[in-house]
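INFO  loader      accepted 1 record
INFO  loader      residues=168
INFO  predictor   begin
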Amino acid sequence: MPTPNDPFKGFCAIRVSSKRNVTLPSGWKSGLSGPLFICRGQEHGLPFIQVIPPALLHGRPNEIEGPNWTAREKKIHAEELVSENYRPIRLGTRSRLTLPRKWCAEADISFPGEVVIAGRGASFEFWRPENFALLIQRELSETDEESTFPGPLASNTSGLTTIPYQDS
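INFO  predictor   done
INFO  writer      dumping tokens
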């Protein structure tokens, strides 16, 4: 269930229009106030498109390491990275946004078509459905390797499908 600190939870398949427009789940509206940034991402070698709030973006200068860099130099480098890799986005009145054409191609997202939107707490991601299924399988297999307790998901990774987002 979404909370004020983590407004984006769950995942579901949604339509992408021929103009690359997507409508976000209605249960996520509380987390959509204020500006958002869109960027490219990759996990387990699989590309996706991510949307993050400014609070996460502004925390990233702390991750930048450099030889004897001052805080000011880190901030300048972070701003350069942001301008190259992040774009501010606006949401339409109906919680719609447009995915960048080039990034759709890089993430192998078709339009018109379908995309999986995955809430990650304070951010969310757009995935090609087949890549998202692979991601889940890889994450489950990592969990299986790390776990000594065979949970109910350990033996049931075949036939993996997306779970629709449920408003509460």
